[in-house]
Amino acid sequence: MSPRSDSGRSTAITRAGACAPWVRTRLRTAPGAACALGLLVLLTAFLAAAFPRAVDAYENKGLRHDLAVEDPRRSVLELTAPPPALGDEAKREAAVRGAALGAVHRKVLAGLPEPVRADASQSSYGIHTTEPIAAGEKWLPRPYGLDPELTYATPSDLPAHATLRDGAWPTVHGEVTAASTEVEAAVTEATAKALRLKVGSTIAVPTRGERPLTVRITGIVAPKLPKAAYWSSERLLRTPSLVAKPAKDPFYYWIAALLLPPDAAPALLATTGVPEPYWRIAPDADRLTALDVDRLRSRVASLESGPELLKLRALAGPAATLTTDLDEVLTGYDAMRSAISPVVAVAAVGIGAVAAVVLLMTGGLLAARRRSELALLRSRGGSLRGIGRRLLAETAVTTVPAAALGLLLAVAAIGRVRLWPAVVGAAAVAILVCVALPLGTTLGHRIPQLHGARDDMMTARPSRRRTVAELTLLVLAVGAVAALRRRGTAADGGSDFLVSAAPVLVGLIAALVLARLYPLPLRLASRSVARLRGAVGFLSLARAGRASASGAPALLALLVALTTAAFGGSVLAGVADARDDAAVLATGADARISGEGDAIELPDRLVRDVRKAGGVREVAPVQIEYSVPLPSGDLGSDVKTTLVGVDPGTYARLARATGLGPFPADRLKATGAAPGKGTLPSKDRVLPVLASPSVAEQLGERPRAIKSLAGDFKVRVVGTVTRTPAVDNADFLVVDAASLTHRQTTTLLVTGGSADAKALRAATHRAGPTFFLQLRSEARAAFVDTPMQSGAERIYTAAIAAGAGYALLAVLLSLLQTAPERTALLARLRTMGLTRRQGRRLLGLEAMPQALLAAIGGLLVGWATIALLAPGVDLVQLALSSGPGSDTLDTAPLRADLWSLALPALGVVALAATVAAVQAWWAGRRGSITELRAGDTR
After folding, report:
1. Which run of H or E residues covers position 80?
2. Per-residue pLDDT tens for 793-812?
């Protein structure tokens, strides 16, 4: 073999060996950078994959929670049919027996359209009387002398849903027909106690024949799950009730239900109770998801009056009907989801934008560290396509596994929801990094770059393209904010991306404006510092002014992150404030003591005991009278209002403390001598009153006569307030109680943040069972988060944490990008006599201008963004869904939270100072010879 051939083969082997291990060689050369990039991609991919899964999870849990806690009388689908038509008596009796009704029940459950699914364990069927039948037994209780009325039902599978407490389960002896004269029945413990029933008691039920039907009580049972659909879809089955007969002065009587065995149903056909078969279908929400809501609503509508109802009639009879309020429950759930989703989208877009900017900054840092290496490759003939492929390969080796691991962690953390949105989120992160890093790095080497050219904020001049881009973003931001203020966060058909991106666009515009204005204060400060004796201040400002113009992304990331964190914190603060306001409206003070309907006079001893209780600061006695007729005003309508008699001094202080309609105390002071107790006031006496706007409009400006149980007098409106502590309705009159003829205290409003709740309860209990205590703290605690609300709040909490974390990471990346240059500068200055202390001051002062700019700018932009967007954001649905007073708030505006604004901003400054101090300490440990090498261009 010739030497020439050996040389050619060795050259080929050398080339192949040089190309093959590129990725492996690069990872071995810079493992720290690869691991840092992988960790950042892992975290970002986890957040991108976890967000849609978290949204799906809390929406699904919210739907299942709403159906689970809803009153079964609204959520159960009840199919009823008229009793069998007269004719063949044997067929009529067979049609209502348990076997026939059970066969229909099984076919109905099997034929339900998806996604309507039945909970077979709580579904039931049978026959019941639709008209109560009076019971004439003399031993039954009659509170007002009225006979109790009973209904009779044959619920299926009673032994599986109840526990036998006494006696035996009711059964049939032989075959029960319409002509049978005796059947057995069971009653619940509550029914037996209220109606004095016991084992062996008999009830005579009138029939259409000559002989009554005797119902004998053989067992007393206790429901196993009294709140479940089996017992609560018709509460009379488990709990009797006192019912009032319509009259001016109502009289009450008992109604209750007796439970017969299923095969005793034919006996009810002869009664006068109008019996009808029923099939109650309890919905199964365990497998329902938020995506099923529209289909579920459509199927329920079809079951009520559509093609699916025709299928049910083919099974239960041509006149069968299905009734339910499940569609209204779904509509309420959909309204809450529609109100919450756009607010959550604001946080998602904000954090997504910050994460994207930080990833791009990371790519820029890696590209800057390899600029000389890639420039050398270009100078030796490397093509942009070849360099880009190699960068893509080494980036993908780190990024794709990290994104996949982030996806797996998100799937493991949040399970049993859709997978593809999480896959899309993690893939988007991987694609962004794999495309942006090689593309941004190679595009910087399209043309040769001269060494030593300055590219700093002091000398950079914005191009026309940059000006056009900034103006375009300004128009988009203004349009988004205007849209949000005009129509709120809710949009037809879901969230509006432009509206959700409004905080991000506002932060983006502020970043661009601050980047343009940044050189101005630096120039002014440099001129002032140049006159001072020390060189450290001047050098630090000069170094800050020579910061690369590529540092604008760091400022952008900081402002967007701080704005998003401020928005998220303000959402949480607004939710808390709304619940506090609703609790105040529910009680009117820190504690409220009153009788039934605020109509019973409180005993003097109770008032004294409350005043003596520990922690009580002040007690405001109030007299409340509802349904006081107003004289017909210009509107000519019959309006009734609530009269509130107060002590002007204490009540004015209470109103001022709670913020509910504050007013000057002397405004309610009546002129002239007050009437004595029990005496009639003068007809010419006019009392000043505070009124709600609607009542003030009804009364007008003239003195008007009022007739009430507290006395007859004339009133003149001297002021209007929209709310008042004593009542939570919108129509009221507040008057000085000392001017009333019949004065009494019906309500006590107690103030004192540390009032002794036990002492107040004891005093209320001693006063009698007709008096009740309401605590503001308990009313506040009653606003329990639903899964949807708590899920949205957790997302906003995560948004605050992620925004702050990405902001601090942006500061760290910005400082790391220029760390080698600063280290070399310190080494040069140390050879000229710079001390370590001066070096720390130099680096700290150099980092402060940009950190302070970002912190102050972020704080101001966050506050301005909340002020701009607050009119379009309503947090009522996010804050309130249960508890007393949940329907009293019409709106819950967005409010700026000082801590959410200040803490991330202070963190940015603290981190910048810490990184500068650590860098100065580390540079001080390394010798100048190590940092200063011949030919070093830093």
Report:
1. strand 77-80
2. 888 788 878 877 887 787 77
